């Protein structure tokens, strides 16, 4: 009966129905059919005991939900790119119809070092369901024939999302091991094309790739300098040069920003970066003390303005530039020394100030002590080290 209602709604009111989510193009949101009370009853009376038994922390206080239907068939969505759900707990039930292929591959939890290693492939059967954490990386493998329709219920808990556990569960792990190709996400993984061929636009759309997000990320990679108040996720995994200019007169900000821009262009021109890949070093500027800027300052252990620091968040190291000369050549010498391994790192958790020192300092460089941050790496990550 549910399939009949869904089919009728799609035939008569498709123009006013929302897409199921940001990835699937075919399907609908069941709340728009007036089924919200029924789904709430299903969640509270039948699913809650099961969710509490399996995932006590994540299910505590689960009261909200987003419920929808997705459809896979040739010529439409044939599969779904690797992703995590915007839910705390997901129920995925197969309603039919007849199909082959269209399995569901699970990799690791996003907090795990092996979150890009394959764990299990689940074969859908009509009338059966799988329940999993929203943060469990998974993707729908391509359908081979027929049509698969699934009922998806995302459950969320405001209580859990306000907890420290939720903050820890949303930290992204940077895996050192090469990923299993099947666990790569074209939408989310900056190194996808390092291991798999680039998708055509048609292929990407048929697998639910969020092309706007991909294009936005690629555009960011082409920019010499990025806004530190809204850093891209790669600040957590790629060495990042951060120039702090908050509170300076506009003319001085403009002058130093231009120096940083000139240096960034020269550095990026000197490195070999494959198409679609993030450069091996990223440049950021902070003009206002907003967004992530205070958090990054704390990580870098700098309080003055202007200030320059190189952060290696993944390695929990920082390299502070303490010269008062912010000329392009002087800053570039500092960055070059970092790339050549000639700077002495400070741990992000450092309590006693020890400035970044060169074992073979260039003539133009002058370094002095500064004030480090007081947070441990774990505390820093919880307060903004892993920013996205």
UniProtKB/TrEMBL annotation:
Entries under InterPro entries matching the protein: Oxoglu/Fe-dep_dioxygenase_dom
Region Disordered, residue ranges: 342-388
Start and end residues of each Fe2OG dioxygenase domain: 63-157
Pfam family, one: OGFOD2-like
Superkingdom of the source species: Eukaryota
GO molecular function annotations of the record: L-ascorbic acid binding; metal ion binding; oxidoreductase activity
Keyword Metal-binding: yes
Amino acid composition bias (Polar residues), ranges on this chain: 357-377
Record's keyword terms, sorted: Iron, Metal-binding, Oxidoreductase, Vitamin C
Entry similarity comment: Belongs to the iron/ascorbate-dependent oxidoreductase family.
PANTHER family per UniProt: 2-OXOGLUTARATE AND IRON-DEPENDENT OXYGENASE DOMAIN-CONTAINING PROTEIN 2
Name of the protein this chain belongs to: Fe2OG dioxygenase domain-containing protein
């Amino acid at each position: 009966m549910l399939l009949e209602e869904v089919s009728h709604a799609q035939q008569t009111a498709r123009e006013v129905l929302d897409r199921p989510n940001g990835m699937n193009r075919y399907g609908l949101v069941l709340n728009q059919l007036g089924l919200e009370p029924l789904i709430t009853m299903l969640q509270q009376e039948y699913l809650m005991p099961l969710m509490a038994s399996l995932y006590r922390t994540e299910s505590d206080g689960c009261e909200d939900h987003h419920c929808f239907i997705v459809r896979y068939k040739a010529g439409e969505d044939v599969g779904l790119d690797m992703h995590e759900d915007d839910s705390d707990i997901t129920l995925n039930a197969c309603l039919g119809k007849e199909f082959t292929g269209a399995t569901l591959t699970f990799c690791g939890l996003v907090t795990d070092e092996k979150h890009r290693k394959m764990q299990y492939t689940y074969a859908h059967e009509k009338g059966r369901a799988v329940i999993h954490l929203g943060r469990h990386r998974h993707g729908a493998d391509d359908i081979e024939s027929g049509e698969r329709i699934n009922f998806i219920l995302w459950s969320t808990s405001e209580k859990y999302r306000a907890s420290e556990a939720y903050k820890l569960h949303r930290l992204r792990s940077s895996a050192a091991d090469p990923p299993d190709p099947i666990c790569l996400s074209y939408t989310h993984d900056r190194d996808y094309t390092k291991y798999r061929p680039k998708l055509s636009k048609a292929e990407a759309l048929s697998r639910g790739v969020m092309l706007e997000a991909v294009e936005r990320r690629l555009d960011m990679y082409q920019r010499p300098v990025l806004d530190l108040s809204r850093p891209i996720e790669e600040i957590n995994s790629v060495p990042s040069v951060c120039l702090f200019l908050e509170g300076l007169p506009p003319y001085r900000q403009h002058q130093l920003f231009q120096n940083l821009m000139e240096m960034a262009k020269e550095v990026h021109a000197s490195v070999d970066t494959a198409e679609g890949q993030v450069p091996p070093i990223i440049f950021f500027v902070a003009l206002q003390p907003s967004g992530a800027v205070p958090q990054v300052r704390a990580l870098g252990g700098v309080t003055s303005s202007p200030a320059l620091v190189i952060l290696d968040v993944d390695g929990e190291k920082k390299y502070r530039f303490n010269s008062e000369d912010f000329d392009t050549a002087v800053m570039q010498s500092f960055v070059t020394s970092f790339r050549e391994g000639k700077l002495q790192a400070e741990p992000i958790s450092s309590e006693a100030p020890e400035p970044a020192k060169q074992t073979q300092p260039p003539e133009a460089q002058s370094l002095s002590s500064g004030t480090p941050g007081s947070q441990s790496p774990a505390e820093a990550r919880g307060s903004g080290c892993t920013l996205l």
